[in-house]
Amino acid sequence: MANTALNSTLSQYDADWTWSEARGHFESVDPEFHAVVSRLDDPIDVERRSAFESLARAIIGQQLSTKAAQTIWGRFVALHGLELTAEGVLSFSAEMHRAAGVSGQKHGYLQDLARHYTDNPDMFDAVESADDAAIVSSWTTVKGLGPWTVQMHLMFQLRRPDVFPVDDLGIRRSMERTLGIAKDAPKSVYTKRALQWGPFRTAASRFLWDNLDNQPK
Fold first, then answer.
1. 24 phi/psi in degrees, rounded to 5
2. For the chain, how many structural domains are there in total?
3. DSSP string across 125-180
4. What pTM was estimated for this model as a whole?
5. What is the residue-averaged pLDDT of the chain?
6. Could you give the residue numbers annotated as active site?
């Protein structure tokens, strides 16, 4: 059964939620979705990284396949040595980064991220008490960081419990295939369907991605 006391008090800042708590909540509020979730293993938590490293990696991986992104990221890190820092990124020219496979546009994005970070590291590192919307609003002032990229950091690195990235096509396709939502419905339809999953919409999103990967092609 769901822990209703926890569900009612879990805040958007609480990174200590568990998959079992999320499953219990879905069972209580949405049996149809819980039936989907019950067929899936708990998603695997990712390696935790600093905000600067996480966002730099996200920029490099934009519009690339997973394999290509991993290859270029490996070259980029090797180019910078043992520790990736904002100061180090600022010291590298576009030509130097291009040797690792980083485009000129992404070099500009990385430079802007590094400038923001060196000017105000607390903007990225001291966000424990900042709400999700405030972080999205603040970080998207950096060139190359859109709402989706920031939401991924909130979900995977900060483990914020109640993030629902409705702009993610995989999330929407998974909901269409398993929950009867019409293909390419207005985004408000997906958002409304997900409201009952709060405050565990991050967990719901992770399950939706895994469910899409487990469906017959």
1. -60, -40
2. 2
3. H--TTS-HHHHHHHHTTSTT--HHHHHHHHHHTS--TT---TT-HHHHHHHHHHH-
4. 0.86
5. 92
6. 168
